[in-house]
Fold this protein.
Amino acid sequence: MAELTSTKLNPESHLLLDQPLLRLPAELSRKNFKLAALHVEHDKKLLLGALKTTANESLSGKKSPSETLDSLDNMINRMKNLKRKMAVFHEEEKTIHRQTRKRLEHLHDLHQIPSLADVKYDEWSRIRLDRLMVDYLLRNGYAESAMALAKEKGIEDLVDLNVFVQCHKVEESLRRQSTQECLAWCSEHRELTRKTKSTLEFELRLQQYIELRRNSRLLEARQHAQRYISSNAETNTPEIRRAAALLAYSPETRVEPYRTMYSKSRWNSLADLFVKTHHELFSLPGRPLMHIALSAGLSALKTPSCHSKYASSSSNASSTTTTVCPICSTELNELARNLRHVQHNKSSVEHDPIVLPNGRVYGRERLLEMSSKVGLADGKVKDPTTSDVFDASQMRKVFFS
């Protein structure tokens, strides 16, 4: 029964890591629908207004029949353009639906696996590992490698290539000290960013103002502030006051906070702010999924002894023993050092536990057997972790309660 419990698969615990797998397509579908609705509403207002004006002018004789026909042709052309835009949105929606279906099938496969020992679980886990690798590569700017890996493994519909590629392009443009691409992104997503009360667009306009002041274009800076910055007075009053005072300080000033405002490092802060806003908008975790999964796995395996001075010889030269503990290995020991270890509710112990004078607990039979194999005299036992030697009479039986 214990073995069955330990190998039984709990799909819900796995889905905690895979929530973005379905959240992102839902967010993309919502965004696609809203953009389509905005285009329809915009063109509807223009067409109805133009139609009403044309009809009135035609009836009143202000327009000749040929002019009326030209106006109708213009309205027809606008409707054709709208139809083309709707076709693009429709194709995007079909792509999102295809990806969602593939992802649901992937998660459904997990619910059909009864046990962790099942071969199908290994196959499913391999696909998830490939997804986590693609996610990690995309977040770190290795788009071509991510695309190649996704194509090789056949998981293009299970990863979000286009979303991260677009995000990385805008991020890099900010690090190159250009606001054009990011402002275009803000314009496209303005309705969504307003709901989240994002300050990204304001910070971009403020950076443009700072660059104008840096280049001594004071008149343009004032005009820019009046057009784009002063409208945020209700929500960003302190920042606007500092921006106004910036006109009195040159780029070489050492007075804070104006020195910081002129700092080139502000561009990196803007790039980080964009990535944060982008991920929040599309319900993406701030950290790579690989980091989250690795942290959880390391914490689950870590014990208080993994970083003691008696750790295994693979990670600690002062130790005289070896271990199969992955956390004590050279590759993972430092990586897990700052992680917490989990509280285990169940533990496995020997059937004849004893405690040595140094407080370490072992199985009596196995300890005596090991001590005999290393050539100790009868009546002596050796601690396999610290190499301390004790009299067998110093062993004390342990009783767990």
